[in-house]
């Protein structure tokens, strides 16, 4: 399949490139790693990353807007978890694009 001729394939490549840009920021990748273990409150995330709360919140918003994480509110706290279905979709697209290469 010619990846420059098929419109659907080009859209998948663009979507995958956006995904890679989103997770290429170190703190965002670290947040995903933290959430891989279990659901976390924003206060746990920013203290573990040792960054200001507003910066952690910014990165969480970017990840949430890209649908890589989910959030739920409990009282005054917001808890974040991975959206495994979305992450698996990105993994599968990346594997589709690069799979079988050496």
From TrEMBL:
<protein>
    <submittedName>
        <fullName>Regulatory protein ArsR, ArsR family transcriptional regulator</fullName>
    </submittedName>
</protein>
<dbReference type="InterPro" id="IPR036390">
    <property type="entry name" value="WH_DNA-bd_sf"/>
</dbReference>
<keyword id="KW-0804">Transcription</keyword>
<feature type="domain" description="HTH arsR-type">
    <location>
        <begin position="8"/>
        <end position="102"/>
    </location>
</feature>
<dbReference type="GO" id="GO:0003677">
    <property type="term" value="F:DNA binding"/>
</dbReference>
<dbReference type="InterPro" id="IPR001845">
    <property type="entry name" value="HTH_ArsR_DNA-bd_dom"/>
</dbReference>
<dbReference type="InterPro" id="IPR011991">
    <property type="entry name" value="ArsR-like_HTH"/>
</dbReference>
<dbReference type="GO" id="GO:0003700">
    <property type="term" value="F:DNA-binding transcription factor activity"/>
</dbReference>
<dbReference type="InterPro" id="IPR051011">
    <property type="entry name" value="Metal_resp_trans_reg"/>
</dbReference>
<dbReference type="InterPro" id="IPR036388">
    <property type="entry name" value="WH-like_DNA-bd_sf"/>
</dbReference>
<dbReference type="Pfam" id="PF01022">
    <property type="entry name" value="HTH_5"/>
</dbReference>
<keyword id="KW-0238">DNA-binding</keyword>
<keyword id="KW-0805">Transcription regulation</keyword>
